Amino acid sequence: MTKTGEGLNYTDNETLMNLKIRLRNPGSASDIHFEALSGSLISDASGFVSTVNLNVPKLIPATENVSLSVQPNPFSTRTNFIVNTQDATTYELRIYDMLGHEVMHQRNNEAMPAGSNSILLDASTLSQGVYQYRIILKSQSGELMKTGKLVVEK
After folding, report:
1. Calpha distance 149→95 (Å, rounded)
2. Cys-Cys with 61: which of 24, 26, 38, 108 at CB 3.0–4.6 Å?
3. Which residues contact 12 (CB under 8 A, 6 or more apart)?
């Protein structure tokens, strides 16, 4: 890719974009369709659309044997992430403000046993507001990321 005064130029066979897709209903993974919506264009700076190919590998749905809840939410100083897994799991928890700045980071490299576990988050240093969390759970069967909102009320 090279940047010009009129836009970006791509060479043949260069990756234009990568799509990361999460299936909400893995049972229907054998029948997935993509379409460009009206007004969607892939063109050069002059509006020319050359040949565009979309290669989609076979989608293999992951089995998700994890449940997560945050209790209480909203909260004032402390909350618990209740994680229920079928495998021993380590975690990495990151909290972001609404501008996307990381404001807290918590990690456990020692595996939690399979079953129900509670992760305490002490957010007493956070101001009142809405925050985003991202928790990555790692086990022998792979990695799983969950995201959501936290509401701190003081």
Report:
1. 9
2. 26
3. none
